Amino acid sequence: MEPTPEQSPHHAYPDHWEADVVLRDGGTARIRPITTDDAERLVSFYEQVSDESKYYRFFAPYPRLSDRDVHRFTHHDYVDRVGLAVTIGGEFIGTVRFDRINDQGRPASAPADEAEVAFLVQDAHQGRGVASALLEHIAAVARERGIRRFAAEVLPANNKMIKVFRDGGYSQRRSFEDGSVHLTLDLEPTEKSLAVQRGREQRAEARSVQRLLAPGSVAVIGTGRTPGGVGRTVLRNLLAAGYTGRTYAVNRAFDEGLATLDGVPAHRSLGEIDEQVDLAVIAVPAHRVPEAVADCGEHGVQGLVVLSAGYAERGADGRELQRELVRQARSYGMRIIGPNAFGIINTAETVRLNASLAPESPARGRIGLFTQSGAIGIALLSGLHRRGAGLSSFISAGNRADVSGNDFLQYSFEDPDTDVALLYLESLGNPRKFTRLARRTAAVKPVVVVKGARHSGTNPPGHAVPVSRIPDATVSALMRQAGVIRVDTVTEMVDAGLLLAGQPLPAGPRVAILGNSESLGLLTYDACLAEGLRPRPPIDLTTGASPQDFRDALAEALADGTCDAIIVTAIPWVGENGEAETGDGQVLAEALTKAVAGGSAKPVAVVHVEIGGLAEALAAASSTAAPRPRTVTPANQAPAAATPAADRDTNTGQDTGTTPGGPTGADASTAPQTPTGQDTGTTPTPETTPAPGRIPAYPAAERAVRALAEAVKYAQWRRQAAVPGKIPEFLDDTIDEAGAAALIEAQLATAPDPRGRPLTHHEARELLGRYGIDVRPTLPALDPEAAVAAAARLGYPVALKTTAPHLRHRADLGGVRLDVADEEALRRAYGELTDLLGKPAELLPVVQAMAPRGVDTVVRASIDAAAGAVLSFGLAGAPSELLGDTAHRLVPATDRDAAELIRSIRAAPVLFGWRGSAPVDTAALEELLLRLSRLVDDHPEVVSVALEPVVVAPQGLTVLGASVRLAPPPARGDLGPRRLPNY
What we know:
Blueprint: E1 19-22, E2 28-33, H1 39-47, H2 51-58, H3 67-74, E3 81-88, E4 91-101, E5 114-121, H4 130-144, E6 149-154, H5 159-167, E7 172-177, E8 180-186, H6 191-213, E9 217-221, H7 230-241, E10 246-250, E11 260-261, E12 264-267, E13 279-282, H8 289-298, E14 303-306, H9 316-331, E15 335-337, E16 343-346, E17 353-356, E18 364-371, H10 374-386, E19 391-396, H11 405-414, E20 420-425, H12 431-442, E21 447-451, H13 472-481, E22 485-487, H14 490-502, E23 510-515, H15 518-530, E24 534-535, E25 539-540, H16 547-559, E26 565-570, H17 585-595, E27 604-608, H18 614-620, E28 628-632, E29 685-689, E30 697-698, H19 701-721, H20 737-749, E31 757-758, H21 761-769, E32 779-780, H22 784-794, E33 798-802, E34 816-820, H23 823-837, H24 840-843, E35 845-849, E36 855-864, E37 868-875, H25 878-883, E38 886-890, H26 895-903, H27 922-938, E39 942-952, E40 957-959, E41 962-966
Parallel strand pairs: 5-6, 9-10, 9-13, 10-12, 13-14, 14-15, 18-19, 18-20, 20-21, 21-22, 23-24, 23-25, 23-26, 26-27, 27-30
Antiparallel strand pairs: 1-2, 2-3, 3-4, 4-5, 6-8, 7-8, 11-12, 16-17, 16-19, 28-29, 31-41, 32-35, 33-34, 33-35, 36-37, 36-39, 37-38, 39-40, 39-41
């Protein structure tokens, strides 16, 4: 008999189990524990379930729930009996429950580690991924409560539920007993279950953005009755762009007799509209927004673009309003762009959506653009328009309370109309997830990022995310590890985006330079060297060169196998009368375009000075790119601006002061392949089609070269990513993971402080030794006699050094004596040390055997609250610290990461025989990095490790010092069930 709630210990309501999730169709829902107040909701939910679904749940006709059933299903102790519900609009659409059982299948308490689980989903919501989301969350709850296995009985005809269990990715066993299928699921996450979870996440979040960008109908709520104002401006822009869906103007202040406004139906509320409204653009004062959101939710609107200001940018009260806005919208299953947004644009011919404050919709193109700033969005739209570039999509997220850059990456990954993703970000709400998504997206199309607020350590107003404490240079290095093209300015973003969207990726760093100005050619040559490219000597066509000369020279360079890219430099050429001709740019553009008309596998860029109309003519020219792989989505997948200063009040119509706040030429073979059996979402597949590439033109050599250098580095990353690095198998034979775990558990048990504790030298040596990292021992020397005894034990020569915190690793302050050859020298060195720096009790001297001569290096690993575990490497000493010459990689590191890590610092030549010195054992150094990475990855309780110095000799290395800090592991949201950020 099942124990009653009164017989079992009752735990407090676990509010950390609450979560907002995105379902398969892009809508949102809330998952939360079921409480005793849910009796009426449960009964109402059950009444809407079909008889067939009830039969599948209870194995017999079960038309209604008894009072005892309702009591049982709403009373839980949140330990041995747990129920979760999925809600939309406050009503249940699905439930799941587990009951802990013993080996005989009877109700039990801990330490029993198995539970019986059962699901029920309303028929109207089946197929939306409700049960799959519930399985992820109930499994996480069960693991938290010490349950390791789920048991389930399913009727053979219940194929949908069997599929949910089968597709979850968990290890499972199946048998047929007494007319039902008996399933047992091991709840320990596996590589497959994590891949399945992330695949579902990708499809759902991409679909949620697609629903916003491609709605079948749009209502502008807050459309003013007279021209002007934010709402009326958006309506005008929608109509001017030729939006293909249905458009409605909504304002509760409209006269009852008003039927149309600007030619579209006018209504006082959404309830008056007889058809489905997919997207609502809200442009009313902040205090009117909750009413508008409720109206949208009650009438089935799928998503919101909130232009209204007056939220988190106004302070604490505004932040609370913003959080409530997100909670309200998600309770109805809607996602939000904004508030304080500039709007969204989709240039697809089948949509033509301009639900923004930009008066002109950009031309159709292959660039997707996301920005957290309306002002930056205006600047980028203007810059791209001026350069003749088109967009596929545009999102200006304002305060970014919901839809974020991560969501945009999910959408861009599988959007067949986007070749390049450009993002202006001011924070990374979930850096681990961003890195994962960026790496996957960059494998098929470039991702270019400008990061604002790099040095302020702040986040967008009202966005509660961890503030990373790692330097901006580290953030940049980690982005590049993920394949992200990190640039410093929006101008550089546009420059890189134009080249990547219109030209093939370069096969290498060799650059041909040709033009009619020797000086401009030399400037370009110098810029190439500064960016790490390998330029050939410039070809000077002389100032008398004609457009035909340019065409011939470019065609020759394109056919030359000794270069990978071409930069054409041009100044106004000299005509027959000896006078400079400032145009015709059209003529030169035609000549260059004809040179590449046959299809080129090399990128071409133009640097021009005062040639009128050249950039515009090149932008309008036909494709310069050879046929190349395009990403396509399977057929079953759903498909300069002035900002108005005020909006109209919905009652009066008066101004209220509401102010809104895959690449060309990419070789399909270079994209990492999805491991067999992993469900990672829709994987773009290559299709060779002609692509509308354009030759980008730049007004300065440095800008063109910098864009080309970014393309070269990205192309190299793509080639390397095609064959991912590995963690060597030999590490498994020399690592004692279980022994290290036992040591860590014992050490943390002695430290009740949640901040953890540093390990002693002996403790650190023992832990590191479990992972094959040998730290040379030190012996204390609190007086000369102890020092002599220690040296006799270790053997001469020895080192005498202080370990006081203010002197550690500071040989420049005289706290280290090396190559002490005998007892006399040791006593003399001890006296000098104490006379110079202080008493032995202050210096804490130690004696250590000398290591073979080599290069002193520093190896570190640490866990940042925002970025995760980071592995770092650099040379020891003040110069490296002053110059910030340290390289970083995310953990876990592969063999390729380790090799790149030691080669990416500026002082790397010192390791490879600089100025005739002997090269050091870099293979041993790479192995050390891999071992440390493995330790931190296996044991998140190891929150920081510093190995300093690590002396790398021509044969082998020696770790002379080590410090380790342990602490309870920080939460890893990226490994738990999928959920939207909570505010």
